[in-house]
Amino acid sequence: MSSTDARAARAALERLLGADASLDLPSGFGDAVERYVKLLLDANRQHNLTRVVDPEAIARLHLLDSLAALPWIDAWTPTSALDLGSGGGIPGIVLALARPAMSWTLVDSVGKKADVLRSFIEALGLDSVAVIASRAEELGHEPRHREGTDLVTARAVASLPVLLELALPLARVGGNLLAWKGPIAKDELRAGRSAARQLGGGEPSIRPSGWEALGAHRFVIVRKERPTADRFPRRSGQPSRRPLGQ
Q: Who contacts 80 (Cβ-Cβ below 8 Å, separation ≥6)?
């Protein structure tokens, strides 16, 4: 069944993309993403990685939603990216398949999910992708990772001020945070602006996904303009209990 659903998800994605070649997907992407969807659905039976299991919904809400970020990524030309809260590999694995020359680090705080991601990466032969089981609050203070990546991606991780505290300490100065969001309340955006200033980020910019099929999905982009103060991120749990800017 998962093989049939994976083929159907691939076909649905191809219909969504139509004749649009602007995403410049590499040769073999279709085969690779079909293998990934099969892996995801097989693992989902045991590990509850996603509630989205209908092939059409997978194509739209997982695959296309991930690929919609490519114009921004291509414009910035990062060589390294870190995906926070990778879960089942959305968007990190999809983007790694689409841009295999980049170095990707997938981060999830749940060890079992990190193990599943490693099994996906091995099965897909993604040599440029690493997985870390860690909380972002801890990772942000590790010298190897603090301000060490060109791009931080995050999809459905936290409210904007919380996400900024988790993500911006990991981005190098001149790098970017690219966050997938739905509608954003004025209070969340106001708090996000304040948090960004405290964390060394520029003004949050809200951009449409560029795809009608994704409805109200959008991106929040924050450029890292200055080093983040050493006190951030705060200890595990504090960013969500006491969000900056509120």
A: 102, 103, 104, 105, 148, 149, 150, 151
pTM of model > 0.90: yes
- The number of beta carbons lying within 10 Å of the beta carbon of residue 30 is 16
Maximal CA-CA distance, the chain: 50
- pLDDT tens digits for range 108-165: 999 999 999 999 999 999 999 999 999 999 999 999 999 999 999 999 789 999 999 9
Q: To which H or E segment does residue 21 belong?
A: none
Strands (E), 69-163: 80-84, 103-108, 129-133, 149-155
SS3 label, residue 151:
strand
Whether 143 and 167 have beta carbons less than 8 Å apart is answered as no
Bond prior to 233 in cis (omega within 30° of 0): yes
Instruction: Identify which of 190, 133, 132 has the alpha carbon closest to the alpha carbon of residue 159.
Output: 190
Query: Could you tell me how many residues make up the chain?
Result: 246
